[in-house]
């Protein structure tokens, strides 16, 4: 039986160990998540699409923390055609490349992404990517404040993030700032087989 990683990943806090774990998980990630009915990427894509003008839908979208590409596939299923993935794990990026739905795939350093990279996009998604066990809470303001005016960040917070003071403080700091409009905030199924929930949010930069 394939090794299960969903429980293990949340117990890891240092970035290098976490990346090694994602590299190891890459091959079995899709089957583990498919078996457990991972709902969040489709919820993000469905929440985001109606907010975008035709030109924004046709423009490149950055899928931050794209992993093996389940989030890119969900965007493609909703009609996004130019999807750019980025992730710290080369193992995950290799699996994403095989999906064929990404125009570009970029390896990232640990921590926050380069604001120069993010600022090229009007739309950034982060499905399951900003969370304990994944990217640090500081990525939320780092990505949001790099967006151009009118740009959007569509992201999810799982239960671990919703219960974590640092992640919630970063979220409040952004959503309550004069720079932000919280266009969507919906709680719903995250990994249905586990009965877990996530909050899907779309935040627009004024
Ligand atoms: C739970 S997976 C989600 C992957 C994909 N978005 C999905 O919905 O299946 C979290 C991903 O975040 C990536 N990650 C962790 N820290 C990161 C960072 N600082 N910058 C970018 N990606 C990061 C991991 O390598 C992993 O692929």
Automatic annotation (TrEMBL):
Biological source species: Pseudooceanicola antarcticus
Domain Methyltransferase: 61-100
UniProt entry tagged with the keyword Membrane: no
Pfam family, one: Methyltransf_25
One biological process term in Gene Ontology: methylation
Key words, A-Z: Methyltransferase, Transferase
Protein name stated in the entry: Class I SAM-dependent methyltransferase
Gene Ontology MF: a single term: methyltransferase activity
């Amino acid at each position: 039986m394939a090794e299960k990683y969903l429980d293990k990943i949340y117990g890891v806090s240092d970035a290098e160990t976490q990346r090694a774990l994602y590299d190891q998980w890459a091959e079995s990630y899709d089957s583990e998540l498919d078996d457990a009915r991972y709902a969040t990427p489709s919820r993000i894509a469905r929440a985001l699409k109606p907010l975008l003008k035709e030109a924004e839908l046709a423009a490149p979208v950055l899928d931050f923390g794209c992993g093996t590409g389940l989030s890119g596939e969900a965007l493609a299923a909703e009609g996004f055609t130019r999807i750019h993935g980025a992730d710290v794990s080369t193992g995950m990026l290799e699996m994403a490349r095989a999906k064929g739905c990404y125009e570009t795939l970029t390896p990232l350093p640990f921590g926050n992404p380069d604001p120069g990279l993010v600022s090229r996009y009007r739309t950034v998604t982060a499905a399951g990517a900003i969370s304990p066990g994944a990217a640090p809470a500081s990525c939320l303001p780092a990505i949001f404040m790099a967006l151009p005016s009118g740009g959007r960040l569509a992201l999810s917070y799982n239960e671990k993030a919703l219960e974590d003071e640092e992640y919630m403080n970063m979220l409040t700091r952004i959503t309550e700032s004069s720079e932000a409009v919280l266009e969507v905030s919906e709680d719903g199924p995250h990994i249905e087989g586990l009965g877990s929930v996530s909050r899907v949010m779309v935040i627009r930069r004024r």
